Amino acid sequence: MRNLVHLHQTAELAERVLLPGDPGRALRLAQALLEEPKMLNHNRGLWGYTGTAADGELLSIQSTGMGGPSAAIVASELIELGARRLLRIGTCGGLVPELDAGRLLVVSEALADDGTSRALTGADQLAAVAPPGEITTALRERGAQRGAAVGPIASSDLFYDSDHMAEHWRQAGALAVEMEAATVFAVAAKRGVEAGCALLVSNVIGDSGYLDQEALHVAELELARLAIEALR
How far is CA 183 from CA 73, 196, 198, in A? Predict the structure, then answer.
């Protein structure tokens, strides 16, 4: 097993990896969806696990932490360790009326409004960063069976105090906003591997209400199942 600066590998790494931001979500999904999961990494609290998925193949689930800088580090080190297909899964804030809390969203492209993806690509603000490879095609096909929406999102450095940006993101075509997808796409493209993103709408920007914990955990399982099907 290899130890890099941030990821200290303690189990086999699958070539396909789900990337939730939240370490707790990584643990819940590993316990629910993997057979005999083994801890892949626990350094810096970035919990990761590898086990056998329902399709009989190895799958790793590795948390990225919050925001582009952390996601870029984790994605880069995973690729160095042998990952070849990265699929970000996480929550997002809806920007349009049709995206109620609890809806699944397949990301067609991420509009770069975060510093990390723009530094990686040299792109202007809100330039579209496309997911490299064919994962998104599979997500679209599998997502249609679950009523998932499909479209662009914005990736931002802000979690709080971003309401004033909502109209700007909507005018650029974004259906929702999150913090890591553009960076994951940019890192994957730079290193010649595939990437995709599917999200769960946890709230609507401008509305203080969030999915309750029970509903969130049920929906995140559905999101992860969609992701695993797309990686088959």
Answer: 10, 11, 14
- Domains with residue ranges and CATH for the chain: 16-230 (3.40.50.1580)
Q: How confident is the model at residue 219 (pLDDT cuts 50, 70, 90)?
A: very high
Over residues 11-28, mean pLDDT: 98
CA–CA separation, 99 and 17 (whole Å): 26
CB 95 within 8 A of CB 175: yes
Opening angle at CA 32, ends 56 and 144, nearest 5: 75
Residues 6 or more apart in contact with residue 98 via CB below 8 angstroms:
149
Q: What does the alpha-carbon distance between residue 93 and residue 102 come to, in Å, rounded to a whole number?
A: 11
Q: In the numeric block, which tokens belong to residue 53?
A: 């998925």
pLDDT of residue 147: 96
Average pLDDT, integer, range 31-35 = 98
Pairing state between β 176-178 and 85-94:
antiparallel
Which alpha helices (DSSP H) does 68-212 contain, by range? 68-81, 115-121, 135-144, 166-171, 181-191
**Tokens 């190895």 identify what position?**
58
Residues 128, 219: Cα–Cα separation, whole Å: 27
